[in-house]
Amino acid sequence: FDMYSKDVAVIVNSSHGSSDAILSASGSAQTMFQIEGSRLAGKKINYLFPTVFAKKYMEFLYEYTQSLSESESENKFKTFAKTASGHLFEVEIFFKVYPEISQEMKIMALLKTVPSSHHMMLLSHDGSILNYDSQIAKDLNIMTSDVGRLNIQKLCPTFNPINKAFNSVYSNEWELGSR
Fold first, then answer.
1. Contacts of 16 (CB under 8 A, 6+ apart)
2. Cα(71)–Cα(53) distance, rounded to whole angstroms?
């Protein structure tokens, strides 16, 4: 990652007790998340992720920082993020934890959009549409306010057996409320 690249958003996050506020964001965050970097300051870090992943991400980050050793102070992975309007995109995240800066732990995250040739849609266990990418929004003429009210099984009834099969395979691994 080149933290000075215009394609990389830099987010500095504070993790102190129950607080996980964004302290600052680079100008690239405005393009990536479609929100001014200054408007991100003070928001919780999970604001950047779809609800279905935000809780898991926060749990991962908490457990990671609790078991941290000097050799493990950085990590890199791919996940999904969302724009201010709720549209999905795939992102690669590199983060480094700085526990020695002050009493609070600071985390610097570098985020880079992963180019994708496929469309993305997140569904709940009952088929409710939770998030989608901007191209799906355009193709189906759906708005952010439609999230949670639209159901893939009503839009595409032939998807119902696929959704049922998926739920039967993964229902033991995930809590229904966290999908």
1. 103, 104, 105
2. 26
Burial string for 53-92 (b: 16+ CB within 10 Å, else e) reads bbeebbeebeeeeeeeeeeebeeeeebbbbbeebbbbbbe
Q: Using one digit for the tens of pLDDT, what is the confidence trace for 68-118?
A: 655 556 678 888 999 988 899 999 988 877 665 556 667 778 889 988 888
Quote the CA–CA distance of 76 and 96 in Å, as a whole number. Answer: 9
Q: Which residue has the tokens 């958003």?
A: 9
Cut 0.85: pTM above it? no
Tell me how far apart the alpha carbons of residues 75 and 110 are, in angstroms, rounded to a whole number.
11
Q: Which of 149, 10, 143 is nearest to 85 (CA)?
A: 143
